[in-house]
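2024-03-11 09:14:02 INFO worker-7 job=invfold-0412 stage=load source=structure_tokens
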């Protein structure tokens, strides 16, 4: 008996009236579904009459509108089309469903994605091979896993396996060389170590050089995670060695007529660049199609790079793409090159410019980082096990940990010991070169094969105090202050002055002192690896943890 209730079956011949009826029923006080068999006969007849009158009035209204629109001018066609679209809608349009509102919402999601923090406006600049997400599905393209154990994020750094030029001890840089058989074994071993330690990977990043790209595929296949998406970028390339590229690392200073210590500084220091590469260099990359997206300025800067220049190229990519991917809960793998990983380690652990020189990244051994919510590394020797209750894995390097290094190597003990010996020998050779250059700066010709031949005058004799002062003055520089061979030479010369009362020193005596100190320091420049799952090591770490916790509580109580 309600005036707004109309039987739908009586309106099958009038679709306009059906829609009008449905809209009126939406505001009715009675339910929308009414069984006509339940109504009395008097109410049913009144109900039918009301429906017929309503349909008639609606039909007249629509016919009057159509007749009025036919009398309009040429612009009436557009109004008629809009009316057709309006008539097809089943109800009012939501504000969020309009194109302008949807675009605004999409822009807000891109600017501040949930769980990813702020994304730079230069997103496309640092990730040219990835598009900015435009839909909800694309927005979550990296969200493949939940957060790590106890809200810890996982980042694995891996240097590629041994390349052909690594074996030949040549400066590689951006030259695209293949892996050796040993390098392929190292890459697959890295994947096996990831699998055995239960490290799951959700997204991988690598460079456009095939030694890194092949290592990525081999490691993921061996880890049974071949389906993991991989992002490649030239920004993860090795540091460009400029004109040194292709030369042997031991003889490049002779071939190019450069100072040996200067070449070692170019190789190991942070801000000393090598000589620039010209267009006629056999390994010039300017005509390579994979670098066609580089601007003229970027191509010019890539002619030679120091470690600082490489950091200016790598870190924007790390901050704008890798960090948001990690923050989204993904466990990421970065397969790159020695200096690229040194740059990332320096940034993550906040290692100084002087200490980064002694950092050496081995080939084919995964380097595991656990990061907190601020993307700061968690100490694997204390915080990881006793604060976050996460079982530690792998080996930490005592010398590197003293410099603020918090990474953990997942490797075999034999390989790690071999890496330790090579690193120790490399550091001792460099420091011996520095001591020989000190003697050359005082006037000795120490590069000659036979300086004591009969047809040549004997080398001049120097004052011991002058030589001591020269080494002492060099060690005041932070770059040389922590070198063990220089410290021992300073002590030896001081012994000659104070105890032996030796005022003068010959070149032959100085050379013999260098060789003796060089041999006595073997194995002492680099401390051994520490196994985090060793029981005695764990007890010692637990004791140190509780001592530090007690001191923090006492300090807090005193402050209060």
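2024-03-11 09:14:09 INFO worker-7 stage=emit residues=560
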């Amino acid at each position: 008996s309600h005036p707004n209730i109309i039987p739908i079956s009586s309106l099958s011949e009038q679709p306009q009236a059906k829609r009008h009826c449905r809209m009126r029923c939406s505001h009715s006080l009675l339910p929308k579904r009414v069984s006509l068999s339940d109504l009395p006969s008097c109410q049913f007849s009144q109900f039918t009459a009301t429906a017929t009158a309503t349909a008639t009035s609606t039909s007249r209204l629509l016919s009057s509108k159509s007749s009025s629109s036919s009398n309009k001018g040429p612009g009436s066609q557009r109004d008629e089309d809009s009316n057709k679209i309006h008539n097809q809608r089943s109800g009012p349009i939501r504000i969020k469903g309009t194109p302008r509102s949807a675009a605004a919402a999409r822009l807000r999601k891109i600017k501040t994605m949930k769980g990813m923090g702020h994304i730079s406006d230069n997103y496309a600049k640092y990730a040219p091979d990835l598009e900015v997400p435009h839909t909800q599905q694309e927005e979550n393209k990296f969200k493949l896993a939940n957060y790590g154990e106890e809200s810890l994020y996982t980042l694995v750094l891996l240097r590629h396996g041994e390349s052909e030029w690594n074996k030949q001890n040549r400066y590689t840089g951006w030259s695209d060389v293949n892996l050796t058989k040993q390098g392929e074994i190292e890459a697959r071993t890295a994947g096996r170590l990831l699998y055995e330690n239960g490290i799951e990977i959700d997204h991988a990043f690598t460079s456009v050089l095939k030694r890194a790209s092949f290592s990525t595929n081999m490691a993921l296949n061996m880890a049974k995670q071949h389906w993991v998406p991989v992002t490649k970028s030239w920004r993860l390339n090795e540091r460009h060695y400029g004109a040194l590229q292709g030369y042997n690392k031991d003889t490049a200073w002779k071939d190019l007529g450069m100072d040996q210590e200067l070449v070692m500084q170019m190789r190991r220091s942070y801000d000393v660049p090598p000589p620039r590469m010209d267009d006629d260099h056999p390994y010039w990359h300017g005509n390579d199609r994979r670098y066609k997206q580089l601007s003229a300025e970027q191509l010019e800067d890539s002619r030679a790079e120091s470690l600082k220049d490489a950091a200016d190229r790598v870190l924007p990519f790390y901050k704008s793409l890798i960090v948001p991917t990690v923050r989204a809960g993904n466990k990421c793998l970065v397969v790159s090159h020695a200096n690229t990983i040194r740059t990332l380690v320096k940034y993550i652990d906040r290692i100084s410019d002087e200490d980064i020189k002694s950092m050496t990244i081995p080939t084919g051994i995964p380097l595991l980082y656990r990061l907190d919510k601020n993307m700061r590394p968690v100490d694997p020797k204390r915080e990881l096990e006793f604060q976050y209750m996460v079982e530690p894995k792998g080996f930490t390097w005592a010398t590197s940990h003293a410099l603020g290094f918090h990474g953990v190597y997942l490797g075999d003990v034999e390989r790690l010991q071999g890496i330790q010996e090579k690193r120790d020998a490399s550091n001792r050779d460099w420091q011996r070169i520095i001591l020989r250059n000190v003697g050359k700066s005082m006037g000795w010709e120490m590069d000659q094969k036979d300086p004591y031949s009969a047809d040549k005058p004997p080398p001049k004799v120097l004052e011991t105090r002058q030589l001591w002062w020269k080494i002492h003055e060099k060690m005041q520089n932070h770059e040389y202050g922590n070198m063990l061979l220089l410290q021992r030479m300073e002590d030896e010369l001081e012994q000659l002055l104070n105890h032996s009362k030796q005022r003068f020193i010959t070149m032959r005596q100085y050379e013999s002192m260098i060789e003796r100190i060089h041999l006595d320091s073997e194995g002492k420049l680099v401390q051994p690896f520490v196994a985090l799952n060793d029981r005695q090591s764990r007890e010692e770490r637990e004791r140190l943890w509780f001592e530090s916790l007690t001191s923090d509580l006492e300090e807090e109580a005193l402050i209060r």
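2024-03-11 09:14:09 INFO worker-7 stage=report msg="The chain has 21 helices and twelve strands."
2024-03-11 09:14:10 INFO worker-7 job finished
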